[in-house]
Write a structure and sequence with these properties.
Blueprint lengths: L1 H34 L12 E3 L8 H10 L4 E6 L13 E7 L5 E3 L3 E8 L27 H7 L6 E5 L13 E7 L11 E7 L6
Parallel strand pairs: 2-5, 6-8
Antiparallel strand pairs: 1-4, 3-5, 7-8
Length: 206
């Protein structure tokens, strides 16, 4: 009988040892996985690296270079402030970058590229989009209709007409610049409709 009790006790102790061993292994494995967390491309996240120089590169090439250096959080915007979307990255080139080249930062940091179409000239500085309209009407003169629409509240009634008098439809709003606006810049906004006249960017306002 004593031998049976001893055997039973040994079995219980062994079982407890196995359970404790499993917990220890799981805890250690979880900690290691967290410390060595990798992204889908096998790069360790959170590593520190110098930001490469992307200026003058095609946007697609710049994005590929950034990922090769370990940066995967990438944004881009229209350097001309026209609120155009970079749909075909190969059609765009990099004019500015944040952070600037040589900056030592975490590879978890987000890189932002300012870009223009490959046939366009980079501006000396990125042109800012109009400030978001609050209770005061922004100045949209020379800005794209698309940027003006983005600055207005989503429920704003917006009417855009061809300022050249040709009666053309304003279809791709990022290709049209504002010539006149009503209400005028600085006027109080209280939900009233907004009217703009516009011409294409290569044209002069009448």
């Amino acid at each position: 009988m004593h031998s049976r009790l001893a055997a039973s006790a040994f079995t219980v102790v062994a079982a407890l040892g196995l359970v404790a061993g499993c917990k220890s292994t799981d805890a250690t494995g979880s900690s290691t996985a967290t410390t060595n967390a990798s992204n889908s491309n096998g790069e360790k996240s959170g590593a520190s690296a110098a930001v490469p120089d992307f200026l003058g590169m095609g946007l697609q090439s710049a994005q590929d270079k950034a990922q090769a250096a370990g940066f995967y959080k990438l944004d881009s915007h229209d350097s001309l402030g026209r609120a155009r979307h970079q749909i075909l990255d190969r059609d765009w080139k990099v004019c500015s970058q944040k952070p600037v080249a040589g900056t030592k930062t975490s590879t978890d940091s987000r890189l932002d590229f300012g870009a223009v179409k490959t046939a366009e000239t980079c501006p000396a500085h990125d042109q800012a989009a109009p400030s978001a309209a609050g209770r005061v009407m922004p100045d949209f003169s020379g800005k794209s209709v698309s940027a003006a629409r983005d600055a207005l509240a989503p429920d704003t009634s917006l009417d855009v007409t061809d300022g050249s008098g040709q009666g053309r439809m304003v279809l791709i709003e990022s290709n049209w610049k504002v010539c006149t606006q009503k209400p005028a810049a600085g006027a109080k906004l209280s939900g009233q409709p907004v009217a703009l006249t516009a011409v294409k960017f290569e044209e002069s306002c009448p």
